[in-house]
Specification:
The chain is an alpha+beta fold. The chain folds into four domains: about 130 residues, Schlafen, AAA domain (Methyltransferase, Cobalt-precorrin-4 Transmethylase, Domain 2, 2-Layer Sandwich); about 60 residues, no CATH class; about 170 residues, Heat Shock Protein 90, CATH 3.30.565; about 60 residues, Arc Repressor Mutant, subunit A. The mean pLDDT is about 90.
Length: about 450
């Protein structure tokens, strides 16, 4: 085992001692038993990864941490032997010792990545990190964790309905005629493991049934909402109409949801330098993100995919957490399919929605840059993944303000918020102050309070 010893500067030590125990970090004294520490390592590995510092004493009120490490590297052998047995040094687990000239001893720093496999502590139990706690996983939670890790997938489970719903549907007939013209549906579906025994699988129903929602209610439709607001949350009061429900096979759902979303977006107007203009999002971005939400979601979670159209953004929420080792930080580079059969077989449809398998989100991000819009934001929630496609320009707010003033005499707070997508009046006020301090703009005389406006300072030269 090769473990490095690194020296830290005083300011780096200070940052570590200021850390609070939470979802991504834990600090422990050297007296804690290795067995207890394995619970924390298991919990980080089974959640979103994290960092463990062994050799930091906690103050009386959970703060004022102090550095008190191992006297030497050999003094931590008992910990390392247990860790190495359960969590071998390598891609998922990194161990290093940290030291500083004016601090006593060596702190063992453990960096834990989110792992593909379930990791168990020395007591044989699996744990997950929730806030600052390492919680044991019960039988039901263990199955959910297996699905989250991609070890098992709900798509392969069978459904107690007649096979005819996928062997004699219009969907499968159209598919066979266009994609497998020499075959018959049932033998082909059995060969693809879409029928096991005398029952269709979840993947088979989703792909080849005309109405999978009748078989798998409340877990395989797409809901589309239009909120006439820029508020952080939509409400019934600002709903433009009752939510639309998109049903049918996954292939048809994706096509309908993308086209419907695009049509609704075209009706949204935003303020630009030339006045109100239709809002624009790259079609590729909407297509790839909605496709990704449908084919990679957890179908074991009883919820639909939700597409929410606001005045300044589109949100796409997909049931289930990110699978296996995928995180919001590595999602554009790493690949993992929770629903491998769905991903593979939907690619056989004419003009498949996932043409470039594994490249969907990267394509979505690139398309946003071409339109000079900011990258979508991916957020992992307790039981879902939310992608926020913002209508915010890549340019800084200062650049957008000065560009607007090239063709307009003045600008106010409301206009800046409409142009930039910034929701906070106070934030815009701060931007105005910075531009005034830089000698770029001045307040329009006679306009104060809510009527305040600003104009360019004309260089007399």
């Amino acid at each position: 085992m090769s473990i490095q010893k690194i020296s830290l500067a005083k300011n780096q030590i200070h940052k570590i001692l200021q850390l609070e125990e939470g979802h991504f970090s834990d600090l422990k004294s050297i007296e804690i038993s290795p067995a207890k520490l394995t619970k924390a390592i298991s919990a980080f590995a089974n959640a979103d990864g994290g960092e463990l510092y062994v050799g930091v004493d906690e103050g009386p009120n959970g703060s004022n941490h102090s550095w008190r490490g191992f006297t030497n590297m050999e003094a931590a052998n008992g910990h390392l032997q247990v860790f190495e047995e359960l969590f071998p040094l390598g891609g998922d687990f990194l161990y290093e010792f940290m030291q500083c000239d004016d601090q006593p001893g060596l702190v063992l720093h453990v960096i834990i990545q989110k792992t593909k496999e379930i990791k168990y502590a020395s007591d044989g139990k699996a744990y997950v990190r929730r806030g600052s706690q390492s919680l044991p996983v019960g039988p039901e939670g263990l199955e959910r964790l297996r699905r989250n890790k991609g070890i098992t997938s709900f798509e392969s489970e069978t459904v107690p309905v007649p096979t005819e719903i996928i062997t004699n549907s219009l969907t499968v007939i159209d598919f066979m005629l266009s994609s497998v013209p020499t075959g018959e549906p049932e033998p082909w579906l059995r060969k693809q493991m879409m029928i096991v025994g005398d029952k269709p699988t979840v993947a088979g129903v989703l792909l080849y049934s005309d109405e999978p929602q009748a078989v798998l209610p409340k877990r395989c439709a797409i809901k589309i909402y239009r909120y006439k607001t820029t508020d952080p949350e939509g409400s019934r009061e600002n709903l433009a109409f009752d939510p639309l429900t998109v049903e049918g096979s996954l292939y048809e759902q994706i096509k309908t949801a993308v086209s419907t979303t695009s049509e609704l977006i075209e009706e949204v107007k935003v303020l630009g330098p030339e006045g109100l203009t239709p809002i624009k999002y790259p079609f590729e971005t909407l297509h790839e993100i909605i496709t990704n939400a449908v084919i990679h979601r957890d179908y074991g979670t009883a919820d639909d995919v939700h597409v929410r159209i606001f005045d300044n953004r589109v949100e796409v929420e997909s049931p289930g957490r990110l699978p296996a080792h995928i995180t919001t930080r590595n999602i554009l580079k790493e690949r993992f399919s929770r629903n491998g059969a769905i991903v593979r077989l939907i690619n056989k449809f004419p003009d498949p929605p996932n043409k470039d398998v594994g490249e969907g989100l990267a394509t979505a991000f690139a398309a946003m840059k071409k339109l000079k819009l900011k990258d979508p934001v991916i957020e992992e929630r307790d039981n879902s993944v939310l992608v926020n496609i913002r209508h915010e320009r890549l340019g800084s707010p200062e650049e957008i303000i000065m560009q607007y003033l090239e063709s307009h005499e003045e600008i106010n707070n409301r206009t800046v918020r409409a142009l930039t997508g910034i929701g906070s009046e106070n934030k815009v006020k701060t931007i105005f102050l910075r531009l005034m301090d830089a000698g770029q703009i001045e307040r329009v005389p006679g306009k104060r309070g809510s009527a305040s406006a600003y104009r360019r300072i004309i260089d007399p030269a």
